[in-house]
Design goal:
It is a single chain. The longest helix is centred in the C-terminal third of the chain and has 8 residues. A hairpin with a 4-residue loop joins β2 and β3. The protein is mainly β and 202 residues long. Strands 2, 3, 4, 6, 7, 9 and 16 form a 7-stranded mixed sheet that branches. It has a 4-stranded antiparallel sheet with strand order 13-12-14-15. It contains 2 helices and 16 strands.
Length: 202
């Protein structure tokens, strides 16, 4: 029972399969709660298969040994008994040797401060940076859904999505008296990762 996500992991430079790559999924279920699934390993041809997934809006995370960057594929919707093919997942290596997280979104890290969802940092060259969002900005709503009702993972899932699609944020900038609603076009983001394997905005 449940849905299935399949894909093939390849080296972005050579096109060769990356055997043994690890794939997992996590996100926001149709019932509104957070969800995560066990990992699956790619076979000798780079193929992976994640089964038994709930009706959910998911992010598929793919990683591999050998200095590869982490890859996230967001906005994957899997219905009951559906098979969704995410195609070739192309893993890259950073030229400077610092591992990075590659994904589609607006390019900012978030944190909770009580009931408030705040921008912790913005990645250089990202859509969020282009719009002028800064650390300390409060995200009050995502596509009309108030963030007070969302946990951190749920909010991230709503903000991320396929490159070229739009997301609407209601934000309150530091020192501002009134919130404003802005629309950002999601794009490809490459964020450096810290020593704990999390994206670092600095």
């Amino acid at each position: 029972t449940g849905g299935t996500v399949v894909g093939r992991v390849v080296d972005a430079e050579t096109g060769e399969p990356v055997a043994g790559a690890s794939a997992m999924s996590f996100g926001r279920s149709a019932g509104g709660g957070p969800y995560s699934a066990p990992r699956a390993l790619a076979d000798g041809d780079g193929n992976f298969r994640l089964e038994g997934l709930p009706d959910a809006l998911l992010t598929v995370q793919v990683s591999a040994q050998g200095g590869y960057d982490l890859k996230l594929i967001s906005g994957v919707h899997v219905g009951e008994e559906q098979v969704v093919d995410v195609g070739d997942v192309r893993l890259t290596r950073s030229p400077d040797g610092q591992r990075r997280m590659n994904y589609s979104g607006v390019g900012m890290s978030l944190r909770r401060n009580g009931d408030k969802l705040l921008v912790q940092g913005v990645f250089d060259g990202s859509p969020a940076a282009g719009l002028g969002l800064t650390a300390g900005t409060e995200i009050m709503a995502v596509n009309g859904t108030e963030t007070v009702a969302l946990d951190l993972r749920e909010a991230v899932e709503l903000i991320r999505g396929e490159s070229g699609t739009a997301v609407q944020l209601t934000v309150l900038a530091p020192g501002a008296d009134y919130p404003e609603t802005v629309e950002l076009e999601r794009g490809d983001v490459s964020a450096p990762m810290d020593g704990r394997g999390r994206p670092s905005p600095h």
